[in-house]
Every structure is written in C-alpha cells, then in structure tokens.
C-alpha cells in the first residue's frame, strides 16, 4: 500500500503520470499491486439540510443517528441535548450526521425514544477542515499531442464497435463518487457537468465551484474511462457522449471514504438525476462492516438506505469488488481494519459486508487482465461477483486521464468498474426508459460467458461463476443485441413507448431513410417489450409495402416476463427505405405491457 493511498480505493497504484510527449503505445511498467468550465452549482434543494458550521474541537467524532424516515427534528433536538451537534441530516432516509466530543454520546443516544441505531463512523477524530473545507487547487494543464488510438481494454469489451450504435447521450448523467475529478482536463472538460458536481467530504454537500476537484489522481482516471471525450486527443471513454458529474467523497490528506460521505454522495445522486454512479472504493475505516457491532451495523443501515434512495430515483450503482484476491463468498478474517487508526486481526463471517459493493442492488465488478483471465489481485466469490471487465494486470494497465492534462496507467478493480458504468450509460442512452433493475438484467444478459480457469477457487458454471459472475461486459451487445457492429447509417431505432392493452393489436413505426436498394437477407430486428405474460403475444414485422414477416408466436403457457430478443428476417425482396412497423398482438386478458423500444439493423 502506498502510504498516501486509502485502503478504501479499489486500485493498485498509478503506473505513471504520463505527459503530453509520452506515446500511448508504450505503457510503463506498473508498481506492485497492493489492494482494491467550473460554474457555481445551484444552492436550491440541497441533498441534506446542514447545520451551522460550528467550532471544531479536539476529540470530535462523527456518528450516524438513524431514525424513521420523515421528520427528524425530535432526534436532532436529542442530539443537541445530549452533547452533540447536528452536522447534516437526511430526513428522506431518517439519517442524522452528528458530531460530539463525548465518549458516551453513542450509548446515550441509543436510549433515546425514536432512535433506531447509532454508530461511530470513524476511529479517529473529524479533521478541523470539516468546519472550513479548503477548495482543492486547479491543477496547471499540459496540452497533449497524443492522438486517440485503439486500447486493449476498449477493444476487449467492444466499446469501439458500440460507438457505431451510440457514443452516449448528453442527457445521461453519470456520477463519479471518488477522490474528485479534474474538470479542466482536455479530455474531461467537454463532458463535465459542473452544475451537478459537489464535494460530499465530511458528509454534507459543498457546492462551491471547484470543491469537486481531485485531491488525488484516482477519480480523474476513473472519469476518463467512463466518458473521456471523442475529440481526437488522448483517450476515449466507454461512453464519450454522456455527461460526467464529480461527487468528491474522499477527504483531503487521507483520501478516506467514510460512511457519511458515501451517504451524502448517494443522496446527491438520487436528487440530481444521475442514471449511473461509479463507486471504486470501500467505505472506510472497515473493509468489512459486521452487523453484530453496533457502530458497523449503523454504517451498513445508513449507506443501505442512501443507496436504496438513489435507486428509487432511477440511479444504478456500479462498484468495484476489491483488490485483495479475497473470496467474498467465504469470509474468515480481516487484518486491515480499521484503517484510520490501528488495524487489528478479527474473525469475520459472510454476514460482514464490503460496502457499498455488497449492498442489495449494487452491481459488483471483478477485474480481468488482457484476455479472458482473472486479474491476479481481483476479489472474487460465487454469488457476489455480478460481472467482470478489464482492470489491467502486469504490464497491461488501463490507460486513462490524470489531473493536469496528463495520462497514465493504473491497475485495479477501480479500473474495471468504470468500464461497466460506461456500458450502463450507453444502455440508458439507447433506451432512457430503462430502470436500474432493467439495467442489471441487461448487463447480465449481454455479458459474454467466461469459463473458470483451472483454479479450484473458481466455482460455478461457465454462465455464472465466482471469478467473472455473468461474464465479461460487452458494450456492443449491450446497446444493439448483436454480435457485429452495424455500419454507420444502417441502424434505426424507435424509443417511444407504445402501450399494449389486452386483446389489442398495436404497431410501432420506424422510418428508414438514406438507403438505396433492397433490405438484406439477414435484417436484424431488435425487440424490447415489457409484458407480464409473454404467452399472450404474437410479434410481426411489417414491411413498407405491407408484407408481414412473422417474428414469434409465443406458447400460450409461456408465463415469462418481457421480450428482449433480436430476430433475423430475410427481407431481401423489400425496398429498404420506407416505414417499417413492429406489430404486437395481445390475444388474452389480465396481463398488459408496452413496447419499450425496437430497432432495425440493415
């Protein structure tokens, strides 16, 4: 572990901070792996109501005081009456962030009527900076002469082919919950969303311009992997057309990610409409939080509520699995916690959680090296890992942006997670109606099955195992359902919802323009229908001249939900240009649905 790097970060180490003159094709050798245009943001409707700054005192500790969601005023009054101050409160989830110098504060508050849980979030004092936070300085920028070129990680997940379908929509906001982001970087600035960026260090939003800037290098590197602009310079992110928002949850000096910071970040993500967040860290100071410890139980509950709140607002959380080569499905010991004071060796069980990565609804990402191989450092675990993506290993690092206009390689599950976050952002760009649950299902369905190697620690099947989960993320299949990239100008889509009532036939049109001659003999028809009983459905494609091509008549006893398939139609006798229609017949009562989206690839 490099001494200035939080154990909570899900990366090994920066391989190099490469300047403008260093060629992309010559990556530096990595260090040893050790683990896992600014503008003022609107002040209206803050994610948390904050108390006056107050005065710092030695011995100040931070606590989560948890009560029923809604009005927390009674509990806040009890905090003040029992030797504490209210630093922030999140009434929507019933969480109060309190500070106190009293060593009996937690025990006293646990006896207060209406208080459900209380827990200290750290084993060290709250820094004085919490009461008058310094804004990170803007790094001097070094313009690059590097031009974009193919990178192994992008080709491995077919991101370069997915860009023929979409590079992402500027209406899609992705939150980078991390050490901050250099918003002035030449590859970040075109996609940076200052209005929705913030610092959540210490547990309440700081919307001052620049508060979101990087206090390290980690967050800027992650941001570049997700959405570095496709501008001919440096690198390209997985989703180079989406918008990046920085939510700095790391504290300066330590780069630690405490629970109150994470809670603030998730609440901000939900309130600001982030469709995806990336979380390449674990919540300090405990690598694993155990529910039989009252402090750690409160941390689990507070962060869980905040994540659930963000998801309820339409935000999918993607998180790194960690870099300790540890079996998360068979936990036995933790020797690294707490990492903000003196670590101790403790026995743990699977009830102890790595958060946020093991919280319900969070997509847990393992790291792969170049090729279909587990990265040597990546955590694993059957039933815990959801999906895998390139994180780098050995001499093949993930090359991305660094503060000051620079570029460099890093290895870690921190680098794998943003690949999946970028793929999720592309999915939402193609179909804005997708919910977090839809995204989880599609990420799993479109992943490329990856078999276990000859390693007894990898359990499960080729379709789902402890090293790779559902497999390696595939950006192309995720956005098109195909296995080959559609040629530019030959992909057409309708994202408008069409209701499918009982005993009714509906049609959704796509007008094809710019093509000459006939349609191909292998016309691809991608269908996304939400329906609670697909046995009711009959699907057809209607050509511009009215010819009907049957796609599927589902068996009457098929009780499955939804249709997410790509059909192949020989339409070689049809003129390509014109209005094509997807026809959906519902032949029964009780169950209804909608056409969510459909597409044609010529």
From TrEMBL:
The active site is at residues 178, 218, 414. This is Peptidase S8. One of its GO terms (cellular component) is cytoplasm. GO terms for molecular function: serine-type endopeptidase activity. Coiled coil: none annotated. Pfam families: P_proprotein, Peptidase_S8. GO terms for biological process: protein processing. Residues 484-602 form the P/Homo B domain. Keywords: Hydrolase, Protease, Serine protease, Signal. Belongs to the peptidase S8 family. InterPro entries: Galactose-bd-like_sf, P_dom, Peptidase_S8/S53_dom, Peptidase_S8/S53_dom_sf, Peptidase_S8_Asp-AS, Peptidase_S8_His-AS, Peptidase_S8_Ser-AS, Peptidase_S8_subtilisin-rel. Residues 1-31 form the signal peptide.
């Amino acid at each position: 572990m490099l001494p200035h790097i939080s154990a909570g970060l899900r990366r090994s180490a920066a391989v190099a901070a490469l300047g403008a003159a260093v060629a992309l094709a010559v990556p530096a050798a990595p260090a040893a792996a050790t683990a896992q245009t600014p503008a003022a943001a609107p002040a209206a409707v803050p994610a948390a109501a904050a108390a006056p700054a107050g005065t710092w005192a030695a011995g100040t500790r931070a606590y989560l005081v948890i009560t029923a969601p809604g009005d927390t005023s009674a509990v806040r009054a009890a905090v003040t009456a029992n030797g504490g101050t209210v630093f922030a409160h999140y009434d929507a989830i019933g969480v109060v962030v309190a500070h106190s110098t009293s060593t009996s504060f937690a025990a006293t508050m646990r006896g207060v009527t209406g208080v459900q849980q209380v827990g200290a979030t750290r084993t060290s004092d709250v820094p004085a900076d919490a009461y008058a936070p310094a804004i990170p300085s803007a790094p001097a920028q070094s313009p690059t002469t590097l031009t974009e070129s193919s990178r192994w990680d992008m080709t491995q997940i077919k991101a370069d082919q997915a860009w023929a379908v979409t590079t992402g929509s500027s209406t899609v906001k992705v939150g980078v919950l991390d050490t901050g982001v250099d918003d002035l970087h030449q590859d970040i600035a075109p996609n940076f969303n200052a209005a929705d960026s913030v610092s959540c260090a210490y547990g309440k939003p700081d919307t001052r311009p620049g508060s979101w800037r990087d206090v390290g290098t980690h967050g800027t590197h992650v941001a570049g992997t997700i959405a570095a602009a496709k501008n001919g310079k440096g690198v390209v992110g997985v989703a180079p057309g989406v918008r990046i928002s920085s939510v700095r949850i790391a504290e300066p000096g330590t780069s630690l990610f405490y629970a109150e910071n994470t809670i603030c970040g998730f609440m901000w993500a939900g309130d600001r409409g982030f469709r995806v967040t990336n979380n390449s860290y674990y919540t300090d100071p405990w690598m694993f939080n155990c529910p039989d410890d009252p402090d750690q139980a409160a941390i689990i509950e507070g962060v869980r509520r905040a994540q659930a709140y963000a998801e309820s607002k339409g935000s999918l959380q993607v998180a790194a699995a960690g870099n300790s080569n540890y079996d998360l499905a068979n936990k036995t010991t933790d020797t690294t916690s707490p990492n903000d004071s003196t670590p101790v060796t403790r026995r743990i069980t699977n009830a102890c959680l790595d958060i946020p990565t093991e919280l319900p609804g969070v997509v847990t990402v393992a790291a792969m090296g170049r090729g279909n191989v587990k990265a040597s450092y990546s955590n694993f675990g059957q039933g815990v890992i959801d999906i895998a993506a390139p994180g780098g290993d050995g001499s093949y690092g993930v090359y991305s942006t660094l503060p000051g206009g620079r570029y460099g390689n890093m290895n870690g599950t921190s680098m794998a997670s943003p690949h999946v976050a970028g793929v999720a952002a592309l999915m939402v760009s193609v179909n804005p109606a997708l919910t977090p649950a839809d995204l989880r299902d599609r990420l799993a369905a479109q992943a490329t099955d990856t078999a276990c190697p000859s390693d007894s620690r990898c359990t499960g099947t080729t379709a789902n195992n402890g090293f790779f989960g559902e497999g390696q993320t595939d950006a192309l299949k995720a956005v098109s359902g195909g296995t080959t990239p559609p040629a530019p100008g030959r992909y057409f889509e309708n994202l408008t919802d069409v209701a499918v009532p009982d005993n009714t036939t509906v049609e959704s049109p796509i007008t094809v323009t710019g093509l000459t001659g006939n349609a191909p003999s292998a016309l691809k028809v991608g269908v996304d229908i939400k329906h609670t009983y697909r046995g009711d459905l009959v699907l057809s494609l209607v050509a511009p001249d009215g010819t009907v091509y049957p796609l599927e008549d589902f068996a009457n006893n098929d009780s499955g939900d939804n249709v997410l398939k790509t059909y192949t139609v020989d339409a070689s006798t049809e003129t390509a240009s014109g209005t094509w229609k997807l026809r959906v017949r519902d032949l029964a009562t009780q169950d209804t649905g909608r056409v969510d989206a459909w597409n044609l690839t010529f």
